[in-house]
Amino acid sequence: MEHTTRHIAMQWFDALKRGDGQAALACLDEDVHWVNNPGVKGLSDIIPWLGDFHGLNAVIKSFEIWGQLSSVVSFDLVKLVIDGDEVFAVVHEVATIKATGLNYDIEFIQRFRVAHDKIVEWKSYWDTVQGIVPFRGDMQRRLIRAAKDNQLHEAQLVLPFGCDPNTVDPDTGETVLMIAAGRGYSDIVRSLIDAGADVNGVDRRAGATPLHKAAQGGHLEIVRILTEAGAFINAQCASTGHTPLVEAIWFKCPDIVGFLLARGAGLAIDTHYGFSLRQHLDYALQVNVRGRELIEQADRAVAARRQSDAERIHKQRLMAAVKSAGMDQVKSLLAQGVSVDERYPIVNGFDDDHTPLLVACRDGHSDIARELLRAGANVNAVEPTFGAVPLHKAVYNGHADIAQILVQQPGININFQGYTNGYTPLLDSIWHGYQDCAMVLLDAGARSDLVGHDGLTPLALARDVFGPDHQVTRRLTETGRVAGTPLVQPKPPRTLYYVQMKWVFRDKNIDDLFRLEVEETQHAEQTRDSGMVVGIWKVASQHRVIAIVSVGSAEELDANSMFRLPMRNFLEFEAVWPLCEYGNFTRQLIEHVQSLAKPQSR
Fold it and tell me: How many CA atoms lie within 13 A of 21 on its CB side?
């Protein structure tokens, strides 16, 4: 038996060394079970001859695929062990991947069994990483080609295995996302975004973003995909100063113009060559003989947005009262049920998308700020220009009295980091030199370990701004406190609540609710950062949301759910249950059971 096994083994390895595929296949049984490396999900997409095959015909097909994609440089038998009808061999193989010109150089184990003078079972074991590297050596080139030619399958082959979704085409300076966006390949765009492509990256020649490219190409669906993924709607191209809106006008895409206007695209813009939006529209009408009607549609849409902005500003009675410091009018309007968190229209002004509380804190109206908070104003509302919350507004304008009011509000995130520079209110107060504001924040337990995008801690900044002997600097030096350890009396214990909510549509459609849900999501993230929300989940395939919240009292929970949730008018609270620690329950249970076992006194 062992003699026959050795004979078949030597025939097999001699045929492989000679590159004689027919002779090698002649050693295999018609019903051979062939396992070329145990299967791993996705691996055969990279090295397609790998896998589990049954029968000679299936093995022949895997050989054909291998021969199409690679060529052997050398094949050597390193060690051979025969044990009855089994063969164990160590083989050294070097082969070239034809598509990349790169070699893999591997030692691998072959194990097979011989019966009736044929190999009936065959299995190999090898480090597939050695094959993946040369096989995917051209991943970037392939992804660029996939983006240019709308080859979704090719993109999906390379993206899961380390190909950079921000790959740049060296010929154009565009990322693959820009290429796909400009050409209208929505499935490729989605795949790239899912893989982590930067929706706000810029090309190396003009400084345009994928949203610019989609607007130039007239692809509304992709404009929608990109904006929903977080693309900056008012990003200005580094070379021209064009925003996506300007590009949509120039490339005669009134549908995209309308979409961008509805999403708050700015109108008070200037290009880098000095044109206003009005001048850009006039010039586009002047130089185009064909498609003028499309530019005229865009012009009418812009005019309608300007009119809508003016009407919305006129209706902003609460904001007008706040800005004029009209306390009596503020109280009257709140009593009438005016929305306390209504956002100001985006008109490229100082109040863009601000709530009344943000403006009151910025402008120093402490009594009005207190009244707005009493009416349920969102203490963590974020304005999009600087990414600041009311506490930022108060401290970098030196309003220590308002800062004191804000830090006492339930659910406030006193450590919120602004979007533009990563500064917390504590960092902002120090940078602007307002020591009273800094002391308010330190007394409230502001963290001293958080750093801005410049890498500076509050202590480093205080040394630079105030000097080493200033009271703020000494306070930070002496305490060295991190993670929000308060310098005042600890807050009372908090209670966990299970809260189950259901969306109630009323007069809203699902898209309207989704827009509100974006605000709700931001609010949830802020309260999660502050420690109020422990976790939040959406129930799959239902219009329900479940949250675990941590509050000091039922009154605090009621105030947040009734007055501060952006979707409070469209939520039905189905269940609100206080929770107790299960460990405490089990300890009490054990104590109770143990007490039952004790003899009762007479």
Answer: 12
